[in-house]
Amino acid sequence: MARQRRSFGRIRQRSSGRWQAAYTAPDGKTYSAPSTFAAKVDAEAWLTDRRRDIDRELWSPPADTEQRKKAATRKKAAALKFEDYAAKWVNTRMVRGQPLKPRTKDHYTKLLSQHINPTFGAKPVASITRESVERWYRKLDPDTPTVRAHAYSLLKSILGTAITDDKLLDANPCQIRGAGSTERRIKPRPLDHNELAALVAAMPEDLRAMTLLASWGALRFGELVALRRCDITGDVVMVRRGAVRLKGEWIEADPKSSAGRRDVVLPSNILPALQHHLDTFVDPDKDALLFPARGGGYLQPSTLYRHFYKARAAAKRPDLRWHDLRHSGAVLAAQTGATLAELMARLGHSTPQAALRYQHQAQGRDRIIAQRMAAALSNLAADTPETDPGENS
Predict the structure, then answer these.
(1) pTM value?
(2) Among residues 115, 148, 208, 220, which one is catalytic?
(3) What is the CATH number of domain 72-164?
(4) Does 228 have pLDDT greater than 80?
(5) 31-35, 105-109, 389-393: range with lowest mean pLDDT
(6) Which of 349, 365, 367, 372 is catalytic?
(7) How far apart are the C-alpha atoms of 364 and 372, rounded to whole Å?
(8) What Pfam families is this protein classified in (predicted)?
(9) Is 68 among the residues known to form the active site?
(10) What is the CA angle 60-47-37, rounded to 5?
């Protein structure tokens, strides 16, 4: 690069052929032109203007580098469409150091395409205002409060990243109090012991153990269909994976959350039924699925529901959903006096408060919880000798 000495400032030609200009100001610092010039005469003209400002005492320090970066970011934001930014956000989002789970990513993608992008997709991120968010939210279907809350929360999270990480906004335009939360319209009612026994008895024999694990073990459907023979050790179920069905294909991955990887001690009342299932319906290979489809592979939800709907009718609980079995299991455990931390450990829930991460489960407490759950059923059987809930469930 050629440098040319001058009475004021200096000019040099870069290898690209463009010209760069710089000068020493009255404050003793050296300042360069914010960009290079195509012609030398333009660089000279820029220096002449700076010298004139100094001579007339009109000179002031130019914007610092950080200000120039901020201006460049603003310029980028003015052109960056929300749909492009949101797509990148979903693909690169990390939660506790891990990328989004396949089902979560699919859920976010659907929320964007169906509820958010039709309004904001073509708009620059920087142009989204509080007023536009409020107008959009008012038009969301009030008859789907959960979807409405999820869509709002997703928009708020994406725009939050646009503030903190990419400096595309000064403040989050999502300021509607309570919009990201909703109360369940249908609150699940847990099964009592007799209802659970009736439900299990009405299920096909090869699905009874699955129903017992869903309730007494409080396992999720995705965790159940991914269970293998090697995951059962005595009275312990080792939850190490989960399976989800997306776009017609099964994907096996880690459990739903980091806390989902856990060992669950089972109450003794269901162990005979589990052992019978292992002996009768599960291949001897250690990696054999506990609850496979009749033709092999993962059990389809539609197959399970076909039998479950009949069984819940027999139990006189037409309101029951499969996931409510897990809720029933949580209630059964809570009734033993289990602490919040112990319940969260048993259910594989991530703690809502960071402080609870450091509250460790008492050693051996999970086994005590399982024993108390079985004891509660035994006490019920003693009070009502004409029935034997433990045998049915």
Answers:
(1) 0.63
(2) 220
(3) 1.10.150
(4) yes
(5) 389-393
(6) 349
(7) 13
(8) Integrase_N_phage, Phage_int_SAM_3, Phage_integrase
(9) no
(10) 115
